[in-house]
Amino acid sequence: MAAKPLYMKSASLSEQVYTLLKELILERKIPGSSEMLESRLAEELQVSRTPMREALVRLAGENLLERRGARSYTVRTIDIKEYLDTMALREVLEAEAVGKALDKISAATLDDLLKELRELIDAGEAQEHLFWRFDEKLHNTIAEASGNLVLAQVLKGLRVNVRLFRLHSPLHRQQENHAEHLDLLNAMREGDREKSLASIRKHIINLRNDVISSL
């Protein structure tokens, strides 16, 4: 792993280290099997151990990393059973979030998401990180609009599991996902509860079945 040294900007140094490491993990630039030593990472990024330690502890707290020793971590591995269990929970909880968000989320917020999604669709097959960035924004926005912060936090953790699983099983259905997201947002924009709930359930089931079909 090669990276430029970090310097204090608007965010704290710990925040910068956290953001960079998370990006390196999710873009597969840190192999899941590799040992992440606090001292070595601090040296490579030319930062002190304190912000590095804080960033690693934070990533472990988000279940992206597993502690292997006093100052050693690895990227957490999600097997097929944990992935399928995760998707079974998401099918229930994402629908709960959509149902609660329908009466709370603003039309302007939905319009902004629709605009961004249509731009992605028009661009064709986007870079993977752009796809995931929108996917996370969409689902987080809906979950947070539900008004249930515990629900939003649980769903965020479940989506971490999905991202970790996809590090070893890349997603090859960007356009299908975009179409399903479009159906969901249009249904929510229309205030159609039945269609919105059906759309989110269909989306989660299709994601799960796509993985099952590749086994």
Topology diagram in text:
Layout: H1 13-26, E1 36-37, H2 38-45, H3 49-61, E2 65-69, E3 72-75, H4 80-101, H5 107-123, H6 128-145, H7 149-166, H8 174-189, H9 193-213
Antiparallel strand pairs: 1-3, 2-3
GO molecular function: DNA binding; DNA-binding transcription factor activity
Keywords: DNA-binding, Transcription, Transcription regulation
Pfam families: FCD, GntR
What would you say this structure looks like, in words?
The chain is mainly α. It has 2 domains: 13-75, Orthogonal Bundle (Arc Repressor Mutant, subunit A); 80-214, Up-down Bundle (Four Helix Bundle (Hemerythrin (Met), subunit A)), CATH 1.20.120. Helix content is 68%, strand content 5%. The protein has helices at 13-26, 38-45, 49-61, 80-101, 107-123, 128-145, 149-166, 174-189, 193-213, and strands spanning 36-37, 65-69, 72-75. It has a 3-stranded antiparallel β-sheet with strand order 1-3-2. Helix 1 (13-26) crosses helix 3 (49-61) and helix 5 packs antiparallel against helix 6. The longest helix has 22 residues, at 80-101. The two termini are 31 Å apart.
